[in-house]
Write a structure and sequence with these properties.
Helix content: 25-40%
Subunit structure: Heterododecamer (2C3:3R2) of six catalytic PyrB chains organized as two trimers (C3), and six regulatory PyrI chains organized as three dimers (R2).
Strand order of the largest sheet: 7-6-5-8-9
Catalytic activity: carbamoyl phosphate + L-aspartate = N-carbamoyl-L-aspartate + phosphate + H(+)
Shape: globular
Radius of gyration: 19 Å
Enzyme class: transferase
CATH topology of the largest domain: Rossmann fold
Keywords: Pyrimidine biosynthesis, Transferase
Pathway: Pyrimidine metabolism; UMP biosynthesis via de novo pathway; (S)-dihydroorotate from bicarbonate: step 2/3
Number of strands: 9
Number of domains: 2
CATH superfamily of the largest domain: Aspartate/ornithine carbamoyltransferase
Length: 314
């Protein structure tokens, strides 16, 4: 098998490699709506086995802005309903000349398995509760735009940490970029201690909100819980959410972020979603820019310098 390169996770990327992607993402962020021919004539497929709005459409916008031909795989109308495996689907796409596949799946580790046996480039659009690398990159780009740096920032990630693939990527990336990371959430929604890197601090929600430059709220992912939420949505909001009262505790210049979709009135008060301190819509905008950077980096090959050794197969 020839060497191929993928973006499966951020755990194996260096600070320099992530910085290069952010730099290229900033390039595209400064050129909103600009069309390019960088991937003209190249075919890219989006395979989403889970529901998605922001991630799926921003990948498609990114692909089309780069000039690529886009194929959108629909599981319900494909041979997967007849028992075809993802591996066989990818091999079929390869045979047709498709060069890259963006995959969202419930199965953690699936992309690592596939990377060893396919030639096309794989991009992780979220695998189970493992990682969501492009969301993490767009979050970091948004922070960098706001503060002019990442080094020295304090970021609080609050909410359903155990089931968050966004957190899975941030746990690897933010400390490498010199960010102080605070975690807060219900005891039943905390990650396993072995998953938390040295230097990452668990604090109460009020302390997190009072000390952070970035308050990032996470959705309660009921679809991943084995049991129903043990408290009402209203009680969750009062105990673990960003209420209007808690928002007043934020220090001057601090901002609100959320990877979305947002459960208004649960993890965050609806009046804060589009407030002056919220960067939630900016995150969505930056999603296109970052995904353009990832796509061109992978598909332009030797012209780019970063590569993830985790996902390099022989």
């Amino acid at each position: 098998m020839n060497k191929t390169r993928h973006l499966i996770g951020l755990s194996d990327l260096s600070r320099e490699q992530m910085a290069q992607l952010l730099e290229r993402g900033e390039y595209w962020a400064k050129r909103p709506g600009e069309q390019a021919e960088i991937l003209r004539g190249r075919f890219v497929a989006n395979l989403f086995f889970e529901a998605s709005t922001r991630t799926r459409f921003s990948f498609e916008v990114a692909q089309k802005r780069l000039g690529a031909h886009v194929l959108n795989f629909i599981p319900e109308t494909s041979s997967s309903v007849k028992g075809e495996t993802v591996y066989d689907t990818l091999r079929t796409l390869e045979a047709m000349g498709v060069e890259a596949a963006v995959i969202r799946t419930k199965k953690e580790g699936l992309l690592q398995e596939l990377a060893e046996s396919v030639d096309l480039h794989l991009i992780n659009a979220g695998d189970g509760t493992n990682e969501h690398p492009t969301q993490c990159l767009l979050d970091m780009l948004t922070m960098k735009q706001q503060f002019g740096r990442l080094e020295g920032l304090t970021v609080a990630i609050i909410g359903d940490l155990r089931h968050s693939r966004v957190l899975g990527s941030h746990l690897h990336a933010l400390p490498k970029m010199g960010v102080k990371l605070l975690l807060s959430g219900p005891t039943t929604m905390m990650p396993q201690p072995a998953q938390i890197p040295d230097g990452v601090k668990i604090v109460e929600i009020d302390e997190a909100i009072q000390t952070a430059d970035v308050v990032m709220m996470l959705r309660v992912q009921l679809e991943r819980h084995s049991e129903a939420l043990y408290i009402s949505k209203e009680e969750y909001h009062q105990k673990h959410g960003l209420t209007l009262e808690r928002a007043k505790m934020m220090k001057a210049g601090a901002v609100i972020m959320h990877p979305a979709p947002v459960n208004r009135g649960v993890e965050i008060d609806t009046n804060l979603v589009e407030s002056k301190t919220s960067l939630i819509q900016k995150q969505v905008t930056n999603g296109v820019a970052v995904r353009m950077a990832v796509l061109e980096t992978l598909l332009k090959g030797s012209e780019m310098t970063w590569v993830s050794s985790l996902a390099t197969a022989n």
